[in-house]
Amino acid sequence: MSAVAVEVRPPLWRRLIGFNALTAVVFGIGGYYLGWFIGHHINGASVAYLGVGGIDQNDLSVFLGYFLGVAGFLIGMGFGVYPWARLRGYPPSLREKEQQGVGRYFGLCTDHKVVGIQYLCGIGLFFFIGGLNAMLIRVELLSPARQVFPAGQYLTLVGMHGTMMMGIMSSAILGPFANYFVPLMIGARRMAFPRIESLTFWLLMAGGAILTTTIFFGGFPTGWTGYQPLNDQANTGMDSYIVFFALVGISMCLLGLNMIATIVTMRAPGLTWSRLPIFCWGVLSTAVLQLLAAPVLIAVLGMAMLDRTAQTTFFIPSGGGSPYLYQNLFWVFGHPEVYILALPGFAIVLELLPVFARKPLWGYRLAVAGMLGVTLLSWLVWQHHLFMSGINSNLRPFYMLSTELISIPTGFTFLCGLMTLWRGQIRFTVPMLFCLAWFFNFLIGGLSGVFLSDVPSDVTTHGSFFSMAHFHYTIMGGLVFTFFAAIYYWIPKMTGFQLNERLGKIHFWVMFIAFNSTFAPLFAAGFLGQARRDVTYPAHLQFINDWVSISAFVLGASMLVFLYNFVHSLLFARIKAPVNPWSSLSIEWQLPSPVPVHNFDQIPVFTSDPYGYGEPSRPSALPAASPAGGSS
Length: 632
What we know:
The protein is built from 20 helices and 2 strands. 63% of the residues lie in helices and 1% in strands.
């Protein structure tokens, strides 16, 4: 007679003690106050003995508070355990919290699937916070005269909205979906650097929390670009912006490094570059941009921090510096950042179209060339942001040309998508609807971008609502729509449950119509002279702004439809999804749901690409005769 082992769970108080999110918050708060205390005394000493610094605005205390707060947060999360154990001679382990139930989602976990779900929920939280700021902006713009917020608070709303969306959403695809699915798609059991993978997520969450604290320090007046000399002149709310974007930059750099190392070195046997899923090509292109662009952002923010705390003059004209230097360095990062947001959207669309058109991906190599071409040319266009800033007139033709040339590799991607749809047996599922919307939105975004790339028209439209409408069509119309396409497509595999199809279609149609109703009129508002970030505007533009505000509220309501669908389907309805509901040939859909911690019992051997729809039945991957590659 055998005894049945019964798992005895420790009491709640014991489970709460240890390295987890709760401990991290406590350590983070403690670290912040320790840093503030140290900075306060350093600042006081500099005033007393050196005659520098100040007591009215102590940026040093705020920066030290944030730095030690982030350090305490990461220590509380458990990121110091591994190096400390290795120093004491313990063998390495890759099993931190990989099989500890729900608790593994609230701490350091080395399972790439857990990290992907952490990213999805964390990014979703800050996406809704950024969206709420957008709703408040549109409330203010219901009237041409100030009525709800003072001008300074309005600028803070605009800055928080833009900064949070640009920073957090830079990892919207790579964070949840690349972390989760790239190892599966390439036949690997884990990411190349599992702890770094988890670190990138918690750095991003720490940064998002820090940005929200800017409201306690008076906000910042610069918008998402942080331009000098406003940066140096702003109150301590600007410090939150600097630390947030610096943490985002570190997270992006490490995320890109991890993705490149994983895709280049950990592909299973038979997965040649010509068989690599197009989604992985998009991830690789984006990762290269992240790895190379993010250090520029970190450097320029470090220089701005020193100007605010150590009396350096990198960007201060009276000390020999130049605000123009900041603008150049920022956009050396900033325009590749635009494609860090756009390229994953390309990859999602091209990955999903063959599944729902039941056709092979048309022009696979052309699509890869398009993505790599965008990656290269994105470094040669940044000064079109400086056409109105005193750029040497002899440089204008080159940057006009380079900006327009980038439409060629972008057009390759567009062409491959359209030709994949041509004569396909299209299934209008919710993910497919979001992909089709991408074509419409991104086309308008691309055509309107021509006005901003040419100097004569940019003189008229720069800094107006026209440029803001173009940007939202390109990024929200490109990234956010494909973000939702990925959610509806991959959630059944990530959770084992399916979302409500009818609610998904309601979400799509309301979002698509409201999105275009919100941003299309802003092209007209920009041509008629309404400036970005101004709290007031001419009275004759009130009708356009009222229309846009009401449309924006409907757009916000569509997100509530999605949120209800997401929460109700996963927590209450919990309808089991088939293992392969879309009849996809991609390898991740051939695995059980949920995917085991180790992914594969045996490392697969790839025999073809995953886009053989309509061709004689053939698997794209077979299990190996014997395990290969080593376990995690």
